[in-house]
Every structure is written in structure tokens, then in C-alpha cells.
Amino acid sequence: xxPKLALLALLLAGPAAGGGLGPGDHAGSLVFDGETxxxxxxxxxxxxxxxxxxxxxxxxxxxxxxxxxxxxxGIEALSDAxxxxxxxxxxxxxxxxxxxxxxxxxxxxWNAGSCCGAAVVERPDDVGFLRTLVxxxxxxxxxxxxxxxxxxxxxxxxxxxxxxxxxxxxxxxxAPVSFPIALVPIGSCAPSRPIAVLTFxxxxxxxxxxxxxxxVSVPSAAESFAHWRVSSGCGSDAPEEEExxxxxxxxxxxxxGADVEVGLCSVLSTSMIPGAEGHILYINDDLDVTARAWxxxxxxxxxxxxxxxxxxxxxxxxxxxxxxxxxxxxxxxxVKDAAVALGxxxxxxxxxxxxxxxxxxxxxxxxxxxxxxxxxxKGAGFVYRDKxxxxxxxxxxxxxxxxxxxxxxxxxxxxxxxLDEPAQESLAARLASGESSFCASFGGTxxxxxxxxxGKGKFVARSAPAPxxxxxxxxxxxxxxxx
Length: 483
Known about the structure:
By secondary structure, this protein is α+β, with helices and mostly antiparallel strands.
């Protein structure tokens, strides 16, 4: 995939202060990935250009629009009362080459995973677009960057789920409406930190069934809720709070890590729009979905201190072998660099996690946990042994000052990384333990890729210098991967 030049230009420009726009309604556009993307922005009357205010991304559903979402959610009046800005972005639609990308009949859609519309075929980088949109808004309005939130309806709810999965450094919390996690498999939703998520799902929704399945084969509301509880480090018991609201209810788990909460509001919608009965959850007799979403979102902020940057280290070897069968895949990583300094690193206490990811093409990623139970001290360093595959696909590892090595095999547990595309000119690897991590980036060669060699592929790279920066993965290993 080509570099996102629009985002790069904004990032290089630095976090310039906003202040160019005043209160009121503003229509905006920006160019991202060669497309002109449009949006509407509302700034509350109280805005004075000096005090930073929160920003809410309110994302429309498939076949809807920014103006349609503005009408359905009714969030504009709430933004005026609660002093936050709202932006309504517009999704793309149409097949490649279609010049009419904002008009019926195809209808706008978002790349949220398994849904929806033409975006599932085209795979636009909508997460990247929304990152760029936040940067653009922040240059015109004084935004509190620790208080950016995501919500949306249907396909827009699915995209707000994806933002929580893949952009937890951008959004402080999310409140998706009428859609569970749409990434497939659901385990690929791997937020970089515990994040607060309150999902609203319809008990009688004919489009997105509460119990899962349906035309787009979604997970159940319970399965999505359970994934968020695990990803955010919540307790193993049932959610702590249940609030009955007429025929609807909200379950909330406050036992999660990092002062976050996750919740599920199960709503009986009275919406009878033909073909979408029970789907427009803003229409119900029991609770104000938008007000409830804001009351939840507004309580959370991004952590004040970002996690430490990974140490940049030189790679000795990275080899991936793929026989097409996940049980026969193998991975070997070795690093030799004085920058591998243990310091306070102690995997016998914190465990470790390995991530290997494609920095080109699909951006495919492998996450493997190396729990504390498998580590032991050896001299001045540590070794990891799990020959039986009790904890995951990695069977051995060593970590000491100046070097680290990891060996993994699908014989342990299926190794979830395939070499089924030739666009793997470089792979990056991160090993994290506690608050410390190390990153190496390998440019290598594909001896063969599975799509052209009967299901067998091989990637081998040697003697990679330490990268100038650690390439950013499109998704990160969940905190739950670390014991």
C-alpha cells in the first residue's frame, strides 16, 4: 500500500495549534490517498479559541451520509449544551474508477472489516483518513487531543469499533451503535492499550442480529462485549453493574485495567423503517442513546504519558517458512545489538509478547504471548521454554544484554502468519516485556510466496541495521497477551 502522503505531511508539520475557525457550522474537505474526502464540522457557541474542547467523530452508516447521521444522532444540540465539537465525515462508495463517489444509488460505506458495501471490495484506509481528519480539525480548532471520541451508527458503529481496535492512541473511548466488532477474526482487534468502549446493540435488529450471524455474519453482542472485557483487562466474573431501563438494559464492567470501563447496552428499538426494523437505536422508548454515549465517553481521556518508545536494535536474522498449513509454519528471530539492555526488564514477572508484521502489502501481523510462567533466569539473562505448546506457538527464547532470540512453530499452536502475497519487502519485529520493548526492521527476500508455489513460501532476511524509527504496525498486540 502506498504511503499516506496527506497524513505524512500533517505529521511533519507538527502539532500546530488550532484557532482558525469560530463557533458554528463548517464544511471541509481534504485529499487523502488521492481522494477528496468531505466532512461537516460543528463548533459550539461557547468556543472562544483559547480553551481546548473535546472532539467527537460521529460516523454515518452504509447508504446514509454525514447529514443523515447528523439528523439521526441529534448530537449537535448536545454539543452546544456540553461544549464539545462534532465532525461528521463522509464515506466513499463505488467501484474503482467510479467518478461519482458521493451520490446514490451505491451509497457511501466505510471499511470497517467485514462490512459494508463497496468499501469491503476497495478497502480504503478509513482509519488513516480519520486520523488525518482529526489532524486537520486540530489545525482549525483548539481540540483537547486527549479527549477525542468515536461513535456512529451501523457501518459507522463498526468503524468506531475499528478505531478502538486500531487507533487507541487517537481516540480516548468509543460508543459504537448497532454494530459489534467487525474485524475477522475478532481476535485481530488488538488495541494498544485498555480502552473504554460502550456498545449499543438492538435486541430485535433485523440487519445486525443481537445473537450474531445475519447477512454480514457478525459476532453476537455477547461475543463482542466479552472480547472488549478481555482486551481491556477486566475481571473474569460477570459484569458488575446491570441497569434495567424498561425493555432495555445496560451492563457495565468497572473491573478493567487502567481506569477504563466496557459496557453493552441492549436496546429495544421502536424503529420500523422497512428492511431495518429495530436497527436505528436512537429511536426507542427507554434511553437517550446519544446522551448516554456522551455521558460515557466524556469520562475518559488518553493517558497523560505515552508508553516508552521501543529500543531500536540491529537484527541478525528473521526467517519465516510457510508450507500453507498453519501447523507447519516456522519463525526464527535473532537480534544482536548492545542496545538490547535489560535494565529493569524481568520477563519472569511481566512475561513478554512478540509481534512480527508486514510493513508493506497487507500489513499482516502475528502476535504471540510468552507468559511469565515459561521464563526462568539463566546467568545474567533469561530463557523461555514451552516445548509442549502450553502457552502459544513460541517454543523457546533467550534474552540477555546484547542479544535476544525467539523460535516459534505451528506444531505448538497454529502460527497465524501466511506468506500468501509477494509484497513483503520488509518485516518488522517487536519484543515487549513490561514497559520495555525492542524493535528490529528487516528488508529481505521472498524465496517463494504461497500464491505462486503450491502453498509454500519463505522469507529470509539477515544483518539488518537498526532502523531510524520503528515502523508502526496497523494493529498492536493486546495487553491481554501479557500475563
